[in-house]
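Session log. Operator J.P. requested a structure for one protein chain; no other inputs attached. Running the standard single-chain path with token output.
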Amino acid sequence: MPLLLEDASAPGVLDRARIRQSKSLLVLTRDDGENLDIVMAAREANPQVRVVMRLYDDDFAATVSRTLRASYPDATTRSRSVSALAAPSFAAAMMGRHVLGVMPVERGSLLFTTVDVAGHPELEGRSIHQAFRQHQWRVLAVGAVAPPPSSTSTDTLGGLHLDRPGFDWRPPHGRILHAGDRVVLASTRRGLDFLLTGVQPHPTQPGT
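Structure written below.
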């Protein structure tokens, strides 16, 4: 594979990198302004190229994504803020063993968590369907509360035994959740905060 060690913002470098024939472009320097300049130059040469760029400020990244999508509706453009992508992982680590994993979704993220049903009025005594909260959480699986894990166990998505007996990953919507159940949830961070603390978060603007 040809390798070109040059400054991508310098005149002629993108042409020598065959940007007009490229299908995808990753722009990953530490300078937000330089990344945007490179992407705009690439778009002028090849409006169809698929672009993913690194930006630090999440508000700026969101504005850039909207603007480029509006300007080039037939091309795929994604801008991602490194700090915003890293934040959910730090938050998950601070929340301890409840969080199994984090998945970025557009400009937000989904947390995959385990929660014991006992004592949660939003879960205990409700059916799977009744326990669903739009934009907050959804029950993915139901099992029995297990003994406390040993210090050598791994409570992560990779370490979670999906096939262990009694853990149902396709529970019927009418199944009632009881105090002895443990559920796996897909939730937003705000939804999980509410579920664990019982404190309703302030309403957010659409898209936040």
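Operator note: Strands lie at 24-27, 50-55, 77-81, 99-105, 108-116, 137-144, 181-187.
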